[in-house]
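Researcher: I'm comparing several assemblies side by side, and this is the next one on my list. It has 752 residues spread over two chains. Same procedure as the others: predict the full complex and return the structure.
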Amino acid sequence: MPSKKIDIDRWLDKLKRIEEKVERLALLSHLSQILNSTLDHKEIRRRAMEAATQLMRAEVGSLLLVDEENQRLYFEVALGDREEEIKTIPLHFGEGIAGWVAQHGRPLIVNSPEKDRRFFKGVDERTEFKTRNVICVPVKTKKKIIGVLEAINKKGKKGFDKEDLSLLISLADQVAIALDNSRLYQELEEMFFQTTDSLADAIEQRDPYTGGHTQRVTLYSQAIAKYLRLKPSERKWLKITSVLHDVGKIGIEDYILRKPARLTTKEFDTIKHHSNIGAKIIEHIRQLKEIVPGVKYHHEQINGKGYPDGLKGKEIPLLAKIIAVADTYDAMTTDRPYRKAMQKKAAVEELKRCSGKQLDREVVKAFIRAHQNGEI
Amino acid sequence: MPSKKIDIDRWLDKLKRIEEKVERLALLSHLSQILNSTLDHKEIRRRAMEAATQLMRAEVGSLLLVDEENQRLYFEVALGDREEEIKTIPLHFGEGIAGWVAQHGRPLIVNSPEKDRRFFKGVDERTEFKTRNVICVPVKTKKKIIGVLEAINKKGKKGFDKEDLSLLISLADQVAIALDNSRLYQELEEMFFQTTDSLADAIEQRDPYTGGHTQRVTLYSQAIAKYLRLKPSERKWLKITSVLHDVGKIGIEDYILRKPARLTTKEFDTIKHHSNIGAKIIEHIRQLKEIVPGVKYHHEQINGKGYPDGLKGKEIPLLAKIIAVADTYDAMTTDRPYRKAMQKKAAVEELKRCSGKQLDREVVKAFIRAHQNGEI
């Protein structure tokens, strides 16, 4: 009964294919979990490329994001197993297969790229890569096409097929969602920093001699943080501390803040309240508890002669010691009504002189390295 | 050849089951897209319950979130087709099958609840619902169990099986990720509001007679927005406008802001600069462009006698007209050094008198309705 035999073979084949589909759908579900479990844009991009490579059983996966302003596609490539080699290549809009997909918003399989006029040889030439076949789908949010997800060179002898296409479209939808969530989060974060920075700046503007002080202290302390190898989360808290360190000046009267001459001892005693006032303002913000010590103690000195509490050495929190160095350097290198700004070189010498006395040794060291490398 | 026949039947059966699995995995992928395409916590919860119901082919799906502080599970139920009937029931920790799963972090199928000691009849009694079978899995983030996802009463005669369990575990993982992203977004949003509010408050504290003014204006304008049926996004912009409307006072000197008597015409002219100063501060914040008009024009009047630009009627942006009403009411109902606060009733009468002259009719109407309903 040969006919029977053929049926069984067909069924077995069908069963095999469908079991494979189950496997790939389970993989898709797993990959989409990995994609969505971060809000970091760069990390999502990396995971998207790897997911496309893995799901398509391809040699290479890539994600191109549309940059509307410059009418370009921002191109990133993950080279399969050699995943450390991620290259960034800018492409003009409409250029190549990816450009076609981005422009038309339609998916595409090209199993003979050499015969396809849309294929752009430039990338192969620049990456020393031989493209045998390509599968490419648009990455769309509700409103627009934000990019293109593609996989190149399917492993094995066959090219990409309809089933690959349906899976890659699903993955691209997940990528679009993950990128969109990340964008919303980053926009909110930027709004937070811009707003607090502008308000801190406005508070500071009452003192005409400190224009731009907050921004400079933020810049210097981030440079110090880099050389102290602080973790990303610590750098974020340091950034917020820098922005808000002088917020307590809101509580100091105009005539003292704006006095165009050296302050009397009594006036200086009043100014000293600003770190405590700042800490009190911040204390009311539940989410900013982490930065209270930095704001409160940014005028403490290693030798215990600082204010408000006269803390010594290790008693002073690290973020406060970083702000202290950045703050001191900025005070020395900007004009005051009663004296001119010091030269940068002289100010650095002065920091060295204060190292271990007023200022923390390690922090000054990090500052000097940042300065030597032209980052300050 | 009966043996051959049996084999074919078995294959056909296997094929059918595996085809069903493909269908359900594709559904899981679709549901996880829907879950992740919002950052709104409530909406994610609703979608999670619906997804559990649909994926499990059950009558009811529910999501219980762990409230660590009160040692309770916060219970929401989506009643299948009758999805409008979502009920909220608090459960004590450890109570019932869901409580067991939350405590042990292990999934559970109970196909004969009446025989299971963990089953808690209270919910059935309160919801007039007959539980035939239950499938229940923990919702875990990287660090902890944040809740429990369950489906009740599988449609058809069979109970829940291992395949259901594996699918529901995958769905619960997606739910955990979506809820975690939403939590991170909402925490950042709260940090933004708390910080700007505290800074605005600090700026305002220089004027001791306006303590709490920003918070009250925010409260009043949100109540007005409700009765004007503003969209959620408009309410959010209005909230930011309320918080920052007086930020320009940072540019007004102490002696005027703190003067314990009526201002002279010249001093009042200086005060009038605050709306322009505020707008200038906000203009520098790219993400807050939407609120510049509200801040700039919150002292304009319908009759054109306001400041800074003497705009009339429809020329004044809606958000500015809302802040104007909230601001006027708060000014009347708080003490000033040179006069006592007006009674609330008298202040409302005064708003009515100004309606259509200084203040917008529709906005005053909305204010009065909010006031009548005890929301102001």
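Model: For your comparison table: The radius of gyration of chain A is 29 Å.
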